[in-house]
Amino acid sequence: MQxxxxxxxxxxxxxxxxxxxxxxxxxxxxxxxxxxxxxxxTFTTPxxxxxxxxxxxxxxxxxxxxxxxxxxxxxxxxxxxxxxxxTPSSFFDVFFEVxxxxxxxLVRISSSAVLxxxxxxxxxxxxxxxxxxxxxxxxxxGNFIVGPGSPWETLLPGDPDIASGQFxxxxxxxxxPNSATPHPMAEFQLTIDRSGTGGPSGLYxxxxxxxxxxxxxxxxxxxxxxxxxxxxxxxxxxxxxIFQLNPDGTTxxxxxxxxxxxxxxxxxxxxxxxxxxxxxxxxxxxxGVRRLRQRR
Length: 296
What we know:
Helix content: under 10%
Distance between the termini: 29 Å
Strand order of the largest sheet: 8-7-6-5-11-12-13
Structural class: mainly beta
Order of helices and strands: HEEEEEEEEHEEEEE
């Protein structure tokens, strides 16, 4: 595991050179650290995602914001602004890894999700887990299969990860700073585990890890290399990248793209010789970090 972390850290230093022009990331700047976030699925205030610690990553069809709750609380906050969407969402899927626990998590946030849902086992916020390295099946619409025969295990009330993660999520629809045309968006938050540095405990490890997100609605924007997606077609992933939580409260998001320059849906942190991250050009594969599972 230590070797894996060192290789990923090296990859994070050089990967921005390999994805320039395909997807971009930066800090937003303006204002001091410690944004006040409300996980309600909208840009609640003009300054909610504009303080100096916020990371903003631009993908072909979406803009991803990430912010640590440094100085305010112990949460990681995310905003998925799906500017390529045209109709309200049925749900958003958020996929992420907790590398030290060798666990993948899938959080499905439905359009009925409300602010701070009291019970994550409700249909509007469903949480699943599986071991890292096992590819999760995808259905014909591009969604994760979570039913019988799937490697995903549903987390039920009373599971320690439910209490530790304190998951919250919400889906919205409307305009945003990135598009004046109404479109889907979602917000998500969970706790960060800072116990290794003397801080509070939580679920998500600061170790570099893969995150991906996808959205499902009646109609979507262009899908993969073909474009022209219409109602009933495959819903594409909207963002994917390696997250690194920095001690200064900022978050580095290194985009992960497939050979068509589109986001990946899921990833594996199991190193495999000669098979590595397929960033758009494929050059990043030379670092030997991991193999990302191509979406179907």
